[in-house]
């Protein structure tokens, strides 16, 4: 089975006016995604943000849950945070994976739109199950990762559709749904 990494990208991100911005790290970005990553056996969760002030904020939260009272009071949260790594850029996350595995990861991202290199969940799941390569799945905050950056990735996962025409999931929900589709139990076969 392949090694799977995830990253939450805060720059370069579109805002609702289609301008490129840097989004803020939220407490939920740290807690919820780290717990989901640990639940699905993710090798590393990269929190990707270029600003030192945001990194300082994130590190204060991480330290509280790793070294402070939070880690003593909630050891399961401390365990989940072991998957977390704060980096400044997507390239830094890729470099860390290359250093750890010795090869370049396939880079997958998500979007609510279809692209020429869109891949289905079932196809990517089979690749992950039958492959020894590494995969970095990137999730954008705000209104998504900038198009020029998206064009550099190997694949873009098909959008998540519900039974209605509304499609604007919070990133934490999208992470959980996608990881379950790619790595979760095959409940429909039971």
Detailed description of the structure:
The structure is a single chain. This protein has 190 residues and is α/β, with parallel strands linked by helices. 41% of the residues lie in helices and 19% in strands. The strands form two sheets. It has a seven-stranded parallel sheet, sandwiched between helices. A two-stranded antiparallel sheet has the order 2-3.
Number of strands: 9
Mean residue pLDDT: 92
Ranges with pLDDT <50 over ≥5 residues?
Answer: none
Q: What portion of the residues fall into strands of 2 or more residues?
A: 15-25%
Describe what is shown at a glance.
Helix content is 41%, strand content 19%.
Fold blueprint:
Elements: E1 3-9, E2 13-14, E3 20-21, H1 27-39, E4 44-48, H2 52-66, H3 69-73, H4 75-81, E5 84-87, H5 90-101, E6 106-110, E7 118-119, H6 121-129, E8 134-140, H7 147-150, E9 155-157, H8 171-183
Parallel strand pairs: 1-4, 1-8, 4-5, 6-8, 6-9, 7-9
Antiparallel strand pairs: 2-3
Keywords:
190 residues, alpha/beta, seven-stranded parallel β-sheet, two-stranded antiparallel sheet, 8 helices, globular
């Amino acid at each position: 089975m392949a090694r799977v990494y995830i990253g939450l990208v805060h720059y370069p991100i579109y805002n609702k006016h289609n301008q490129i911005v840097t989004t803020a790290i939220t407490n939920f970005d740290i807690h919820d995604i780290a717990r989901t990553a640990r639940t699905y056996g993710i090798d590393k969760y990269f929190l990707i943000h270029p600003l030192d002030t945001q990194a300082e904020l994130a590190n204060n939260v991480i330290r509280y849950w790793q070294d402070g009272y939070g880690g003593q009071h909630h050891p399961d949260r401390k365990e989940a945070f072991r998957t977390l790594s704060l980096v400044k850029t997507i390239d830094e996350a890729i470099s860390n994976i290359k250093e750890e595995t010795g090869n370049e990861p396939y880079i997958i991202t998500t979007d609510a739109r279809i692209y020429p290199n869109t891949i289905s969940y079932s196809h990517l799941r089979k690749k992950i199950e039958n492959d020894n390569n590494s995969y970095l799945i990137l999730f954008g905050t705000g209104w998504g990762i900038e198009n020029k950056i998206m064009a550099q990735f190997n694949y873009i996962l098909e959008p998540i559709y519900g039974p209605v025409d509304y499609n604007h999931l919070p990133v934490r929900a999208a992470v959980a749904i996608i990881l379950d589709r790619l790595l979760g139990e095959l409940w429909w076969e039971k």
